[in-house]
């Protein structure tokens, strides 16, 4: 083989190596870097994307111990519970979704702006939670009782402990005067791609414009660290006993100041 042919092959090999290297780096960047999404609110209960939003929540909370406790480990109630959350948010708050390039729902955020609160009226409750609780009471009365004797009283207790003032001894006014994140999810295979950060900024930016705080809760140390990196501060942690047959958990209460 002539020297010129050998040199040409070497140059071709080098060019291909460089090309594959650049292509691989580009692929890795796409797979690990921020993912471009379009954020949109859902304002209509007939919007077909509501079902997609529910499935994102189902997938995101599949292994979450708190979500499992809330349904007593009964998987058939999982979709019903998350459906109740998104429909209540459309009625009383702001449900935001993240869409990928193919218009697939890949993330959700249930924000409640000042003047509103999660399930503070019958209209929200009757969009799914009435049916969920009726079914839960029928199939697992112990877990149903836990919601009303354990979980919800603990929520009110933490509001009183961390948000009460002489003018508002129960602490409910602070939550209703600020932005509250009730539910937040990204499909598992796209987490840590910046989608969640963009969904958080929807409420955070509006809160900043209005000189309001953002409030949220989380049950995991991993999420606590993430929120703290994003400027949230921990107000405190409250232990919530689980329903019969399920472990308890520690609920962390966080706030982001304007």
UniProtKB/TrEMBL annotation:
Organism, as annotated: Heliocybe sulcata
CDD domains referenced in this protein's UniProt entry, alphabetically: NAT_SF
Molecular function, one GO term: acyltransferase activity, transferring groups other than amino-acyl groups
Domain N-acetyltransferase: 123-256
Name assigned to this protein: N-acetyltransferase domain-containing protein
InterPro entries for the chain: Acyl_CoA_acyltransferase, GNAT_dom, Trichothecene_AcTrans
């Amino acid at each position: 083989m002539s020297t010129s042919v050998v040199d040409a092959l070497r140059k071709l090999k080098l060019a291909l190596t460089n090309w594959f290297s650049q292509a691989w780096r580009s692929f890795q960047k796409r797979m690990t870097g921020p993912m471009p999404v379009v954020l949109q609110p859902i304002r209509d209960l007939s919007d077909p994307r509501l079902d997609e939003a529910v499935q994102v929540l189902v997938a995101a909370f599949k292994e979450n111990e708190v979500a499992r406790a809330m349904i007593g480990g009964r998987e058939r109630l999982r979709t019903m519970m998350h459906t109740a959350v998104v429909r209540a948010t459309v009625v009383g708050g702001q449900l935001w979704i993240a869409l990928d390039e193919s218009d697939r729902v890949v993330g959700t955020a249930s924000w409640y702006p000042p003047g509103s609160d999660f399930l503070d009226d019958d209209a929200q409750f009757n969009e799914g939670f009435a049916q969920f609780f009726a079914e839960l009471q029928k199939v697992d009365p112990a877990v149903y009782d836990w919601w009303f004797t354990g979980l919800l009283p603990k929520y009110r207790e933490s509001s009183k402990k961390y948000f009460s003032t002489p003018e508002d001894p129960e602490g409910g006014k602070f939550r209703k005067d600020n932005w509250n994140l009730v539910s937040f999810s990204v499909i598992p295979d796209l987490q840590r791609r910046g989608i969640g950060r963009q969904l958080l900024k929807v409420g955070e930016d509006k809160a900043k414009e209005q000189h309001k705080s953002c409030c949220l809760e989380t049950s995991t140390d991993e999420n606590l660290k993430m929120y703290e990196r994003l400027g949230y501060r921990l107000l405190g942690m409250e232990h919530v006993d689980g329903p019969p047959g399920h472990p308890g958990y520690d609920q962390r209460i966080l706030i982001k100041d304007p």
